[in-house]
From TrEMBL:
GO CC annotation: nucleus
Lineage per the UniProt record: Eukaryota, Metazoa, Chordata, Craniata, Vertebrata
Highest taxon listed in the record's lineage: Eukaryota
Recorded GO MF terms: DNA-binding transcription factor activity, RNA polymerase II-specific; RNA polymerase II cis-regulatory region sequence-specific DNA binding
The name this protein goes by in its record: MYT1 factor
The keyword Ribonucleoprotein is assigned to this record: no
Coiled coil, from the record: 36-98
Localization: Nucleus
Alphabetical keyword list: Coiled coil, Nucleus
PANTHER family: MYELIN TRANSCRIPTION FACTOR 1, MYELIN TRANSCRIPTION FACTOR 1-RELATED
Amino acid sequence: YLLFSLSGCPRATFTGKKGKLSGDEILNTKFKTSDVLENDEEIKQLNKEISELNESNSEMEAAMVKLQSQISTMEKNLKNIEEENKIIEEQNEALFLELSGLSQALIQSLANIRLPHMEPISEQNFDAYVNTLTDMYTNQECYQNPENKDLLESIKQAVKGIQV
């Protein structure tokens, strides 16, 4: 017959250990009824807090999605504005070049024509010269004497060839 030792058997070891526990230790390891009730209330409270956190997280996620959508829309609008500004800048640059060319053509055309009480036209006095010309043509009735009529006619002839 084969002899078995209880020392190698896991059940024998567990049974042996269980048998060594005192009555107080067994009571301390088991849940008391009040502990179960307290744990049940704590679990209910934790479940309630988890539910509230999940609801709060859902609201925050919805707010984040809305915010991301708004940011995306703003970024698209900004990109469109930047593109429009670039087009406007290019148009302004083209207009500035055209204006510069016209002002140079006007300076060259009127270089030999002297307005009363003014130096010959140049880049330095260009604005004042143009203002005087504008005044002369706006108020032609003030410039009806023969000398002024000849001056206005000379100016007309000088600028006739400028392409606008």
